[in-house]
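Q: How do we represent a protein-ligand complex in a form that can be generated token by token?
A: Start from the inputs.
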Amino acid sequence: MDVIYNPDHVLQNGKVELINGKLEPPVECPQRADSVLEAVRNAGIGQVSEPEKFGLDPIVSVHDPDYVDFLATIWDRWTEKGRSWDALPLNWVGRGMRHIKPETVDGQLSYYSFDAGTPITAGTWKAVKGSADTALTGAKRVANGARSAFSLCRPPGHHASRDYYGGYCFLNNAAIAGQYLRDNGFGRVVILDVDYHHGNGTQSIFYDRDDVLFVSIHADPLQEFPFFIGHADETGEGKGKGYNLNLPLRRGADWSVYSKALEAAYAKIRDFGAEAVVVSLGVDTYEADPISHFKLKTDDYARIGAGIAALDLPTHIIMEGGYALDAIGRNVVAFLNGFEGR
Ligand code: SS9
Ligand code: ZN
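Then emit the structure tokens for the protein with zinc ion bound:
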């Protein structure tokens, strides 16, 4: 399978994230994508190529243009204030406050974000745009008839919504790819999110639509980030009612629990009549992931890959999370080999 990789991902290289009350080096670091690339190359998964450049049109088909403009310009506005360190927001709306867009840099960082774990730095926009292009290039190959493609996106995307960032995500690569497939020949698209965390951004973007089904297996929001979305009773709204399936699992879930959720996901996807599948592939469900609490093993990723391949649909795999630096590569390779039936 073709692999799309953007060398400019290294430009997203924040100095700090706020985690557990401390400013620490970000776990979402350049080494992640480089170790996946190395493992994918060593395993001979397929030809590796750089993304084509797409304009902003496919991005603003799922994101607010003013938000995209904010992302593209915020670093310059931040440094104009004499600040040379990572841009982070400091406060958010509380209950009863109003969502009116402030004028200032700090106000807008707050307005367009939902956490302080997602630093913006000098190269963030270039890396983020390149990550979206990585997704679009993979989507284009699938739209042109490829059985599958792997977009090695970094930074990840599934926490980014129409007009906010957070959870290390800025543009929603899976949503952008899913919309591209919709616009290029596929009537019904499913986005299957197997990252440890709920794909809140993807859910929100497609929540009122019946042409893109969102299915997510993730840690129960009562126990885990993003905490305020991702419950089982969120099934969609309006036309989208019935086209959103959340399968939250308690901390400690291993293959015996996880595989049952996967069966439910596959059944829903078949029932929907999906014509293409976008996989938000996070390997932070791994037993040794430093920020997560599921118990999947490397061989389990091969089983997930094989299960998704058995849906027998054009499949676009997009990299999301996974933070155990010494294991991300082999877990992704296990998934891809499982998918390819190797
Ligand atoms: C863990 C802090 C979580 C956000 C995690 C985002 C994962 C994206 N204690 N910070 S896949
Ligand atoms: Zn995650």
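The longest strand covers residues 212-219. The chain has a mean pLDDT of 98.
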